[in-house]
Amino acid sequence: MTAVIPRRISPAAFGKALDAFRAIVGPPGVLDSDEDRQTYIDPYALGDGLDHDCSAIVAPASTEEVRAIMRVANEFKVPLWPVSRGKNLGYGAASPAEYGNVILDLSRMNRIIEVDVKQAHCLIEPGVSYFDLYRHLTEKKIPLWMSTPGNSWGSVVGNALDRGIGYTPYGDHCEQICGMEVVLPDGDLVRTGMGAMAGSAGWQNYKYGYGPGWDQMFFQSNFGVVTKAGLWLQPEPEMTAKIELAFPKFDDAEWAIDLLADLRRRDVIQHNIVFGSPVRAASVLSQRAEWYDGPGAIPDSACEEMIRKLGIGWWNAKISLFGHASTVKAQVEIIRKLFEPRIGKELNFELWEQGDPPDKSARGIPTTMGLQSVNWYGGRGGHLSFAPVMPSDGKLILDYARKIKAYYEQVGQDYYASFTIGRRHVNNVSLILYDRDDPAMVTRVDQLYRHLVTEAASQGFGEYRGHISYMDVVADTFDFNDHALRRLNDKVKACLDPNNIIAPGRNGIGTRSA
Amino acid sequence: MSASGGVKRRPSRLLAAGLLLATMAGCSEGAQQAPVKAQGPAMMPQSQVVMFGAGSADEGERLYGQECAYCHAGRNTGTIMLGRRMDPAQAELHKRTDLEPDYVKAVVRNGLVNMPPLSRVEVTDEDLDKIAAWLARNGPK
User: Fold this and answer.
1) Domains and CATH numbers, chain A
2) Are strands A239-247 and A315-323 parallel, antiparallel or unpaired?
3) Of A19, A155, A217, A269, which is most buried with the most CB atoms under 10 A?
4) Do B84 and A287 touch (CB under 8 A)?
5) What is the ipTM of this complex?
6) A368 and B77 in contact by Cβ < 8 A?
7) CATH homologous superfamily of domain B13-135?
């Protein structure tokens, strides 16, 4: 018997539920030993992570098994925390928001069911990783490209459902989802969009179906378990061009963001643009002690040294262009004309044409390199992302960055900016890096994050995504009309999931008090 | 596909950083590509890392390519972190000559510093046995 059991359930009832789960998925599909449960502790937890420990793991291999698990969970009132692959690093990984949930691990559901080469879409299960999909496309020589996030270890579907992003024209991952299959909390099975028609021929071709579109209801929520999703892929273009733009001064952010955001709105640049500071670059390449090993926040002088030695700017933006050769070349000229006079040097784009090695191209190739940054302070590291959504206005973003940087310096954490410039918004992302085994730092990081979220909300800026330890903190900031959105979410939750068995507390929905 | 150029001498941290910058084109997150000259032999490009072991007759090598190589082959997270405390020429796991199966299995199930543990759902005991045996093929007998 496991040492942890879900709240409000007797050990005997929980034992019966586990037996019922074993009958559905087979004994190897249910894990409840201490040794197995510790492999699901968030590797970036602030501290030991045991405050988000699970009671067991159940790993189905099919939609039918998910449906059967849902029925058992209702019978015994066992809360389930569904994860696609459990690699949502920086947001809690596989760990549940509420202590003692059973993790519903969908990793075994990893089939690439179909790839339509001509129509450029695929239908996949939630256990498919970015590496799986990339290998499949490459092995079958399918000329379709995918967008990849900073950490590609995770699930393609899971990342899209949490509204993760990548850096190609298909980088708004939630927007590439076309049609989903969802197991509802009562075990019922629905397909969204055109998939609501039995024998639908256009499930992955048209997103909206007939009547209301429910798809968004299953993003960042706990109203169902997505067991299949359609995903649009990018037809391989004729040419790509890419370059790193380096802006030497902190204050350059104002004009650079205005210019880049305008190009983004006009679709000259068709992807989310990352706009990063020196620590962002240095943390992937090196450790803090190589630049500065004193107390408090890293000083500007150390950042200036990074700029000199790494040949980067105070701000750095990778720009990629995709399309027919004539279009790409014309866009290269537009960007050169706009930026060269301001930067004061010639911009040499790296061009890729069909047949060249993939690494020369601007396509997404899965990588876990971004995870390197957690080794910044040494020891077992982690990161937490503060990412308020703001209008894409250069002055607003720069002024806010200055204020956030000063606050990092006041509390003694290194400022790491990694803004994302979208179509109409900028995510003023600052990553908080930490050593999870340094209790003083963990306390500082917790206070820093809470302060930042609250302070941003007072200016009208809300987070786009939340970590399991702060889901209520973020949800509290969405407070129009005395938290009308939370009331709506909780009403829907109570209607669809009266036993609150799917991910209680996910994004502040169905939170239960201890 | 399993071989790539070994690093002959240990470059300074910053030279290693420059080399990394120059090889990171195509990575969507992480470092910025900067005009620092690459030095030393080139590492396996990421597009090959991702395909490591594909089509290998040895199931252990194929599984290593699928489950481990994305961090431990080429200049990736595992390689860099291990390269900080051991000979960089052996920092890619498949080049190690000191691995024993039980050690590999213990690290996979328990994690090591910044390496997260892998669950028995993600990599079954049976597959881990094959990976561990393949990684230990050049280890102490």
Assistant:
1) 11-108 (3.30.43.10), 112-235 (3.30.465.10), 239-362+368-468 (3.40.462.10)
2) antiparallel
3) A155
4) yes
5) 0.94
6) yes
7) Cytochrome c-like domain (1.10.760.10)
